């Protein structure tokens, strides 16, 4: 069981780290482009190009901050132990799907089984948090029954 949690954790960590790496590279590339850009006789064109690069850098910096927040959340999650109620790091098995409460990183497939990786702050994450086996909840008109919490 802890091996499954570790695999799901690794999936989420890899997702977050990949986002950090891509955004860091994009920011560095934009900075290099701005540094290499030389002012020509078409001053307005130069200024527009630099402004566009600055806007791209600002947007990517914001996205990088969000990606780093994912890593912070993951650093607080334990992959050991069994949860009695759903919380960060829990695997929740329902009659309508399997969930891993950590960060929203899409669907992970481990040993042929799909797990939706969701943030506790997401609507479904909020519904799952605190649930225990036998509990039910409704999401988008669908009733979910919790079968197991790990």
What's this, in brief?
49% of the residues lie in helices and 23% in strands.
Can you describe this structure?
The chain folds into 2 domains: 2-75; 91-149, no CATH class. The protein is 49% helix and 23% strand. It is built from 3 helices and 6 strands. It has a 6-stranded mixed beta sheet with strand order 3-4-2-1-6-5. Helix 1 packs antiparallel against helix 2. The longest helix is centred in the N-terminal third of the chain and has 35 residues, at 2-36. It starts with a helix and ends with a strand.
Taking Cα atoms only, what radius of gyration do you get, to the nearest Å? Answer: 21 Å
**Beta fraction:** 15-25%
What average pLDDT do the residues reach?
90
Distance between the termini: 8 Å
State the total count of DSSP E strands: 6
Number of domains: 2
Number of helices: 3
Helix content: 40-55%
Strands in their spatial order, largest beta sheet? 3-4-2-1-6-5
SSE order, one letter for each helix or strand = HHEEEEHEE
Uncertain spans, ≥5 residues at pLDDT below 50?
none
